[in-house]
Amino acid sequence: MRAYDIILKKRNGLELSSEEIQFLIDGYVKGTIPDYQMAAFCMAVFFRGLNPGETSVLTRAMADSGDRVDLSEIPGIKVDKHSTGGVGDKTTMIVVPLVACLGVPVAKMSGRGLGHTGGTVDKLESIPGFRTDLPIDEFIQTVKNAGAALIGQTGNLVPADKKIYALRDVTATVDSIPLIASSIMSKKIAAGCDALVLDVKVGSGAFMKNKEEARKLANLMLDIGRAMQIRTAAVLSSANQPLGKGIGNSLEVKEAVETLQGNGPGDLKELCIQLAAQMLLMGKGMKDQKNAVKQVTEALESGAALNKFREIIEAQGGNSAVVEDTTLLPNAELTLQVTSPREGYIQKFDTEKVGLAAACIGAGRSRKEDKIDPSAGIVMHKKIGDTVFRGEPLATLHFNSGAPCEQASDIILDAVQIGRERPASEPLIIDIIS
């Protein structure tokens, strides 16, 4: 069997056997198949695609390329969640304690931010003392004791995905639905969850720019979940504007705490309740979605989820006083208001540009080795449909000396479209597929 023949077969639009796919993944991880051949394969997949069967085989081969986490000693159904990436998406820090306080264990492995999207691990590390590098045995024990834990991905978890994603990132093959689906699902399978809720983002701040593509991705991941015996549901949510107001690591922790206190933005609260309800349905085997939403809402409003977040922070070595006093989080030295150049209505955002503006002043990274400034970020003051007057603040930049704040300000102004007509409102939750 030769990599050349497999690449040629896929280039010609033919279906690959499970043995051929396994050969490619094994060879690439071992180093017997070079980068240039795997890059050629990814480009062939980009143009020719993979059918659901091929994608499931690829996903399993990637999941089996390294360690697998065994969560069987944790009682109950372990439910995970994953977002396909958004701007201002701090839902994990709200949803995990919300679900855990209702008795559903959550063993959550998260990633770091790259490009215009933020990473949960970076956000959590802005909490003084919070450890995201727990060894697996301590991770499992923390879930058993506190009901949940949030850590970064372990060193040898899905090495095939790490190598292939780095290659896709520099060969213009990132936005391939089969490759996105196999990348996401292989990590979740290796992480050992029993059930999974996917937050599939749609719009200007997402990989999937339209509903049709997002629905294809969601359905493909649900197919993979079924093939791997992982119960899976997907929530399609709009990424046509930043979620909530805060963008940047400590700013997003602050907003997550405010939401757990009952004071968060309405859109963030709405999405978190829906995601948590889907996790509750699967974790407790419930059938009634209205009842699940009711239980989640009560847990949020009662303060039970806030207390659980405090418990998780303490269990992972962090300063849990941040849930009462968010000024303990890193604070930037300087702020700058970005004001509206005209009067009108906020008609649309280029959400990706807003995320890039935050990264520009230190809140994100363009390369994996770049350092993050945990205090840097942006607070957005307007939503689509809001009235704005000339000179009124659109956003406030939080940054430290030396950051290119004027460049970030220009990016924000370019990202916000203001017009004379109020735009039609669009739903945050587009669909729920289960």
Query: What are the segments in which pLDDT stays under 50 over at least 5 consecutive residues?
Result: none
Overall mean pLDDT: 93
How many helical elements?
16
Widest β-sheet, arrangement of strands: 1-4-5-13
Residue share in helices?
Answer: 40-55%
By CATH's scheme, which homologous superfamily of the largest domain applies? Nucleoside phosphorylase/phosphoribosyltransferase catalytic domain
How many beta-strand segments? Answer: 13
Instruction: Give the strand content.
Output: 15-25%
Shape: globular
Any idea what the radius of gyration is?
Answer: 21 Å
Largest sheet: 4 strands, mixed
Q: What order do the SSEs take from the amino end to the carboxyl end, as H and E?
A: HHHHEHEHHEHHEHEEHHHHEEHEEEHEE
Specify the CATH class of the largest domain.
Alpha Beta
Number of domains: 3
Return the CATH topology of the largest domain: Pyrimidine Nucleoside Phosphorylase, Chain A, domain 2
Question: How far apart, in Å, are the first and last alpha carbons?
Answer: 39 Å
Structural class: alpha/beta
Second CATH tier, the architecture of the largest domain: 3-Layer(aba) Sandwich
Write up this protein.
Helix content is 44%, strand content 15%. It has 434 residues and is an alpha/beta fold. It folds into three domains: 3-49, Transferase, Pyrimidine Nucleoside Phosphorylase, Chain A, domain 3 (Up-down Bundle); 79-323, Nucleoside phosphorylase/phosphoribosyltransferase catalytic domain (Pyrimidine Nucleoside Phosphorylase, Chain A, domain 2); 330-419, Pyrimidine nucleoside phosphorylase-like, C-terminal domain (Aldehyde Oxidoreductase, domain 3), CATH 3.90.1170.30. The strands form four sheets. Strands 1-4-5-13 form a four-stranded mixed beta sheet, sandwiched between helices. The protein has a four-stranded antiparallel beta sheet with strand order 6-9-11-7, with helices on both faces. A three-stranded antiparallel beta sheet has the order 10-8-12. Strand 4 (195-202), helix 10 (211-227) and strand 5 form a beta-alpha-beta unit. The protein starts with a helix and ends with a strand.
